[in-house]
Amino acid sequence: MNEAAAKDQTDRQLITLLQANARASTAELARKLGIARTTVVARLARLEAAGVIVGYTAKLGSEAQDRGVQAFVGVTVQPRAGREVVKKLTSFPELRQLASVSGEFDYMAVLRAESTMRLDALLDEIGEIEGVIKTTSSVVLALRVDRSA
Questions:
Q1: Does pTM surpass 0.70?
Q2: What gap in Å lies between CA 16 and CA 147, rounded to an integer?
Q3: With CB atoms 3.0 to 4.6 Å apart as the test, which of 72, 92, 125, 133 could cross-link to 76 if both were Cys?
């Protein structure tokens, strides 16, 4: 394996470790990666400067995550209605993520509501937005892997 590929692999391993525990010390990261602590510090600085790592955050525990309900919602919109639909969707505090996607839907939204009743009302509100043709939702039953911050 060439040096560039080794650096890329080590960077990927470093990022994976940070995703699991962003509070891990540089000494702990170095021990797990089998490299010097100063190398970890230099790599972190380089990844931050390059915009690969843009911040560190705290994740809520499963008790806090289990409150409420999360759903993935595919949203199909009329041609040229996307900008206004996105603007309206952005106003919902329950919206966690919104991505334009290829395939069956135009957008994929991640929503978190305090109850299934609120999720139902929210889906009705989204369906009533001018330009929305249809929504298709999938409620999250269990999160199996979460590497998001």
A1: no
A2: 8
A3: 133
- Tell me where in the chain the CATH 3.30.70.920 domain(s) lie: 62-139
Residue pLDDT tens, the chain, 149 long: 444 444 678 888 898 888 878 889 999 999 999 999 999 999 999 998 988 888 887 665 555 555 789 999 999 999 999 999 999 999 898 999 999 999 999 999 999 999 999 999 999 999 999 999 999 999 999 988 877 65
Sign of the torsion angle spanned by Cα atoms 33, 19, 74, 141: positive
CATH architecture of 3-49: Orthogonal Bundle (1.10)
The CATH number, out of the four listed (3.40.50.1970, 3.30.70.920, 3.30.1300.10, 3.60.15.10), of the domain defined by the range 62-139: 3.30.70.920
- Supply the DSSP symbol for 27: H
CA distance 30 to 37: 5
Q: Token pair for residue 58?
A: 């705290």
Sheet holding 132-139, edge to edge: 95-100, 107-113, 69-77, 132-139
